[in-house]
Design brief:
homodimer; Protein Yojf, Chain: A; Trna Endonuclease, Chain: A, domain 1; elongated; DNA-binding
DNA sequence: TTCTTCATCTCGAAA
DNA sequence: TTTCGAGGTGAAGAA
């Protein structure tokens, strides 16, 4: 890395005037930098819903992909945001720095108006690493395929992601007696929604097969809630305890 | 605001040594500031699942409530995170700045190891404003209660959030002929899951009432997908188009 | 605590 | 583009 690149990595202005802040945002945006603006602001959002946030100190992040995130000092979720694909725009309006971000389909806009900017920064970022995660539903599926007996002795997987009119079945197979078995996988403790999902698939497969034979449903997850277990009983489906990592 | 307070609002160090960065993080944490660290780092996570992220430039935010957010230059969601309630800790390990955050129930930890810190900042934040949102499911409910005829002429709401063995019914009422009607509300276009939810409630109410009379189900939402509409037909439930804002 | 559902959910894959 | 389900979903309210 050259000294110039090194100098370019981060650019920060403390308590800039509104026009200086606007300038930093604009040039950073051209360079494809991630920008942060910290200061006292209000936020208006209009789109899928609409919201208004009165004055307060917030940390605003503008990503080169069009993402906007407005964070207060509490909570994991941003208090306001805009998804990737938006077009940012920083202007001076009524003597304030106004950061506006818009997109279409759906039509949405967010406007952050700063009455005071405490800090504006631009970061040049390089990131070639991909996140690798384990303990997902895909891992649980692989575990079932490797050890089908986890579902029940004699279970034979025939297909994964088998399409039905109601959606894709996680694991489709047959039991020791040759009856069709529909398996729904969940990486964590399941509630009533998962039972409904399993039941939709079972019914869809029964129609698909013209109800020539009974179709069995099995939910595979680490555990079930009481209400979900009751529903499983009502629908006549089974439950098998298993985790993605193998307990 | 005093000059001292003004000076305290933001504290930033550019390309600090690892120990200087650690010091900023530690003192900021004591003062209840929000901290951001930008630099080249790796991230390890272990908990409900586990993950590893190789070296790259990222923006890390530590909130005084224990939240940790690791952002790359893409996407609305952090690539790694830790929810509120965690205990942060910044140390020097192998000559690197290591930010560690842990919590219990569930046991989870994240470790961010910086090989180079480009910027560390601490922000004192005041924010007394609450976000007000409109266009939510609660708004749709109010709209139905104000104009029950939107569901159908003669519909009479009798209760909201009425408890059943399957969960709470959004709006519970009766039609012009005195038949029980279960209404499920959605603020946006619905898929098959919403039909399953409605059907669970209808079945639960039928059991509750000992099936003395037929129970009708109505889904109220802006629109419905084809598959969901088919399911509605199969289950014998109705659909009414309505938005939280009134079209 | 656990359970249940909403969310401007986001995200990715497939049709 | 829309649909559908996964997600370390998070967040809120109730039991």
């Amino acid at each position: 890395m050259t000294a110039s690149d090194q100098r370019r990595r981060v650019e920060t202005e403390l308590r800039p005037g509104h026009d200086a802040a606007r300038e930093v945002v604009a040039t950073a945006r051209e360079r494809g930098d991630l920008v942060t603006v910290f200061g006292r602001c209000t936020v208006e959002y209009e789109g899928r819903a609409s919201s208004y946030l009165g004055p307060g100190d917030r940390h605003v992040m503008l990503k080169p992909d069009g993402t906007v995130l407005v964070h207060t000092d509490e909570g994991q979720q941003p208090v306001n945001w805009q998804p990737p694909g938006c077009t940012h725009d920083a202007t001076l309006a009524n003597g304030q720095l106004e950061v506006r971000s818009e997109r279409t389909t759906p039509e949405e806009s967010i406007v952050v108006s700063f009455e005071r900017v405490q800090q504006v920064s631009a970061f040049a970022m390089e990131d070639s690493s991909e996140l690798s995660v384990s303990g997902t539903e895909a891992d649980l599926k692989q575990r079932i395929l490797d050890e089908p007996d986890l579902v029940e002795p004699g279970f034979t997987p025939l297909a994964t992601e088998r399409q039905t009119p109601a959606g894709a079945v996680d694991v489709y197979g047959e039991d020791a007696e040759g009856r069709v078995v529909v398996v729904e996988l969940k990486r964590r403790r399941v509630g009533p929604d998962a039972v409904g999902q399993l039941d939709r698939y079972v019914q869809a497969v029964e129609r698909d097969l013209h109800a020539e034979s009974e179709v069995r449903g099995v939910l595979v997850a680490p555990s079930v809630t009481d209400r979900a277990r009751t529903l499983l009983g009502e629908k006549g489906h089974g439950f098998v305890a298993a985790t993605p990592d193998g307990e």
